[in-house]
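Task 17 of the worksheet. Students: predict the tertiary structure of the chain below and write it out as structure tokens. Keep your answer in the requested format; marks are given for formatting as well as content.
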Amino acid sequence: MSRATKRKHVIKEVWLDNLELPSKNQQVVRIVASRGNNLHEVEDANKAQFLVSMPTKFRKNVWIKRGDFVLVDPITEGDKVKGEIVSILTLEHVRFFKENKCWPKEFEENHHERPSDELFVNTNRPLPQDDTTSSSGEESDSSLGVEET
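Model answer:
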């Protein structure tokens, strides 16, 4: 199978298929951080944090970021890595889980904590300054040392 065909099937599986309820041993967790080497630190509904691994089929085909939800299958023999990602949950998955009352109450968004009209503020860039007090057009020629002839 070519790389493009494999990617097509993985994307189709993530976005279109697989609207199934989690089994008894699977759990919904939130991504806290990426730890490298296809390991991600996650947080479960009880606020316990542990590492999970991303299976080979998702690597370089699907990207996840902090705050995304995934379905995890536990691994019993691992000391540090406690689970493996089974599927990446989209908004449709979340709605389906909420309708079937399988969504953890601890992951319900509180609209008082995070208003929807606020956008992410990038702290790496300075905020634009309002220059309403200074006249930029009148002083620009004299400040640059340009002589009028």
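Marker's comment: Helices lie at 3-15, 91-99, 136-143. Residues 110-118 have pLDDT under 50 and may be disordered.
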